[in-house]
Design a protein that fits this description.
This protein has 14 helices and 13 strands. It is α/β, with parallel strands linked by helices and about 375 residues long. It folds into two domains: about 1-180 and about 360-375, Glycogen Phosphorylase B (Rossmann fold), CATH 3.40.50.2000; about 195-355, Glycogen Phosphorylase B (Rossmann fold). Helix 9 (about 240-250) links the parallel strand 9 (about 230-235) and strand 10 (about 260). Helix 8 packs parallel to helix 9, helix 8 (about 215-225) crosses helix 12 and helix 11 crosses helix 13. Residues about 380-385 have low confidence and may be disordered.
Length: about 375
């Protein structure tokens, strides 16, 4: 098949949406499909299979997005139509402007189209300090629906959690619930801590350094802990809160955190030698990094936020903390420090949990595309043809 993948936001693999996009693109290529990717990444210019759109400039808004490491594509109807008019199927990663244009082209040429649900309303409203304004978030969902989701052949939801939230606002949709999945290269390894960390209790948190991921909550919890001098925090990621995190750490933490963007190989090692994984995000569609931690048997502490899907990964009350409550997180961290035998037992439980994670997610995404082609054309096509 010839498949177009529309990415209003792509960039570096430093967030779940980009990771999911690359996972899909790489899987479809490995399955022998011809893939054309439409995105705004100038560094991809000239690479085979990539068509580059200009970036979108919106006064004041671009500055806000730039602080969060986000660049939006600006649509180009002529270029998009030329690129995708002979495709067998189209998949848009987000319901943004170039995805909307691709939808118009899909309708014109009767091409089946799917769109992934990788953007919670709060991911938009938080940039304008309105993440807790319910009517604003409902309005965002309704706009996504009217412009894109209402008109496509399939919607990919990474979790039942986000499908329920969206359908409670807009009603039933042609949805497929398919996890974005843990990276296949992330697996349990028998590793010792590096020498410089052997006397430390290592807390790992992975994610873009932004408000909704709640890194400041982790810092405050560790700063209040009686074990602060024995804890080594590792933040794997980058983002707009970097300076604030460093400033706070220098002032309140006896051990400064290690902050870096790690390659997959190094990340796999850290997942396997860390003592505890912390994922207290207030807004989270799925939490791919949390799945990867679990796949290595790393015991997590997640948030009970009503806007986060990750609470379903808690196997006990000590694996979940109150969102936006540093004392609650502090208590859970101290519990696991003080109960090493129970932590070892839960490592085994999470290893078993991890072995049940669906590692065939991208094959299911591929089958979803075959399904909508079949429904559109009535050919009985499937991924074995």
């Amino acid at each position: 098949m010839k498949i177009a993948v529309i990415c209003d936001v792509l960039g570096k693999i430093n967030n779940g949406t980009t990771m999911a996009a690359y996972n899909l693109i790489n899987h479809l290529k490995s399955a022998g499909h011809e893939i054309v990717v439409i995105c705004p990444d100038k560094d991809k210019k000239g690479l085979e299979g990539f068509v580059i759109l200009k970036t979108r400039y919106i006064p004041f808004i671009n500055e806000i997005l730039a602080r969060n490491g986000i660049k939006l594509a600006w649509t180009n109807r002529k270029l998009i139509e030329k690129t995708i008019k002979d495709c067998d199927v189209i998949h848009s990663i987000l319901p943004f402007v170039s995805g909307h244009t691709a939808l118009k082209v899909a309708k014109k040429y009767n091409i089946p189209m799917a769109v992934s649900f990788h953007c919670q309303a709060e991911n938009v409203s938080c940039h304008f300090f309105m993440k807790n304004v319910k009517w604003v978030n409902r309005l965002i969902y309704k706009r996504f629906y009217r412009r894109v989701f209402k008109h496509v052949d399939a919607i990919h939801y990474p979790t039942e959690f986000i499908r329920n939230i969206f359908e409670n606002v807009v009603g039933p949709t042609p949805g497929y619930v398919i996890s974005n999945g843990a990276n296949k290269n992330i697996m349990p390894l028998k590793l010792e801590k590096p020498e410089h960390l052997k006397n430390k209790f290592v807390l790992l948190s992975v994610g873009r350094l932004c408000n909704e991921k709640s890194h400041m909550l982790i810092l405050k919890a560790v700063a209040r802990s009686k074990y602060a001098k024995d804890i080594q925090l590792i933040f794997a990621g980058n983002g707009p809160l970097l300076k604030k995190i460093i400033k706070y750490s220098n002032k309140y933490l006896p051990v400064p955190p290690i902050i870096d963007f790690f390659a997959h190989e190094e990340m796999a090692k850290i997942f396997n030698y860390a003592d505890l994984y912390i994922h207290p995000a207030e807004i989270e569609l799925e939490g791919i990094a949390c799945l990867e931690a679990i796949a290595c048997g790393l015991v997590p502490i997640v948030s009970d936020s009503p806007k986060a899907a990750t609470k379903k990964y808690a196997l006990s009350l000590n694996n979940i903390c109150k969102y936006n409550d540093p004392d609650s997180l502090k208590e859970k961290i101290e519990y696991w420090i003080e109960h090493p035998k129970e932590r070892a037992m839960y490592q085994e439980k999470y290893l078993n949990f991890g072995t049940n994670l669906d590692r065939n997610c991208m094959a299911k995404m591929e089958q979803m595309l075959f399904d909508i082609i079949e429904k559109k054309a009535g050919t009985g096509l499937n991924s074995d043809n």
